[in-house]
């Protein structure tokens, strides 16, 4: 199959920062006589900061709580600053959306919408494709994930649908022709040459697509793919051949809720709370997060 693939920077201790810590705390009296507007502004800033931190926490916990269908899990990439000097493989943004008011949903292909393998043929598959790669004709047996047709159809009603895959164009374009034979559902197709390669893994940089990040969501089974923008991700478990798989139902639930929110990242946080609240790893992570807040 085609291969698919953040660091915290601690502030160094300086004499200046040490002196700051030695300064006396403001007196309680001065705090009490602070203007109401200043207090309100401080509370508002704290709430906004906490909300963003929660979004990132829930995104990471969603990945941790997702069952793994592969024998070998993904190796998480180190965090790379968003202004990394290495240019993306294809920096050209997408054309303006045909429906400007719509949000954009970016779907991965392999192990998210379908699973494909080469010879020998598996017991179950829905169709075959025969791309020419490096001068050789290869046969891929493709199994569609349960609910993929319904997901694509429903997504196209309210969203701009983009498929962004780390797969080769020669292979992936043929698979997408089967999923969208009329070309009426998927607005844009992006392949491996539009990814950014980091440590041998392929990362999908959403910031170069020409879309506002508060109106974009990416659905992917590989956390490395959205390493730059975890708060924009709806993670799903990798699909291999489980015909009882229900992961795309979670995605469809998100599509029902997202239009209500101005910021898609808030919608992702909302869905994460609903889906993950009974997950033991979620609860452990939430306790750790609260401990960090109250001991900060």
TrEMBL record:
Ranges of residues in domain FCP1 homology: 98-258
Organism: Phoenix dactylifera (Date palm)
Stated name of the protein: CTD small phosphatase-like protein
Xref: PANTHER family: DULLARD PROTEIN PHOSPHATASE
Entry superkingdom: Eukaryota
Compositionally biased spans, kind Basic residues: 17-27
Any single Pfam family the record assigns to this protein: NIF
SUPFAM superfamilies, per the entry: HAD-like (SSF56784)
Example GO molecular function: phosphatase activity
Biased composition (Polar residues): 1-14
Disordered: annotated span: 1-30
């Amino acid at each position: 199959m085609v291969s698919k693939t953040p660091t915290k920077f601690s502030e160094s201790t300086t004499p200046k920062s040490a002196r700051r810590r030695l300064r006396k705390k403001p007196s309680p009296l001065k705090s009490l006589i602070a203007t109401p507007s200043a207090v309100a502004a401080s509370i508002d800033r704290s709430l906004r900061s906490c909300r963003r931190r929660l979004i990132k926490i829930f995104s990471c916990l969603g990945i941790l709580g997702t069952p793994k269908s592969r024998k070998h899990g993904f190796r998480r990439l180190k965090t790379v600053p968003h202004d990394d000097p290495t240019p993306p493989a294809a920096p050209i943004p997408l054309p303006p959306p045909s429906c400007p008011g719509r949000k954009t949903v970016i779907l991965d292909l392999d192990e998210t919408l379908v699973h494909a393998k080469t010879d020998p043929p598996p017991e179950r598959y829905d169709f075959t494709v025969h791309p020419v790669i490096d001068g050789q004709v290869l046969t891929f047996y493709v199994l569609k994930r349960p609910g993929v047709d319904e997901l694509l159809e429903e997504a196209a009603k309210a969203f701009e649908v983009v498929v962004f895959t780390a797969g080769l164009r020669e292979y992936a374009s043929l698979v997408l022709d089967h999923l969208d034979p009329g070309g009426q559902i998927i607005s844009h197709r992006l392949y491996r040459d539009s990814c950014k390669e980091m440590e041998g893994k392929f990362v999908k940089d959403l910031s170069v697509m020409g879309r506002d990040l508060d109106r974009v969501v990416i659905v992917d089974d590989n956390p490395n793919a959205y390493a730059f923008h975890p708060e924009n991700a709806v993670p799903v478990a990798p699909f291999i051949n489980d015909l009882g798989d229900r992961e795309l139902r979670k995605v469809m639930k998100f599509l029902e809720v997202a239009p209500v929110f101005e910021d898609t990242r808030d919608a992702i946080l909302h869905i994460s709370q609903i889906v993950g609240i009974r997950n033991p790893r979620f609860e452990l992570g939430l306790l750790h997060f609260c401990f960090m807040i109250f001991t900060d």
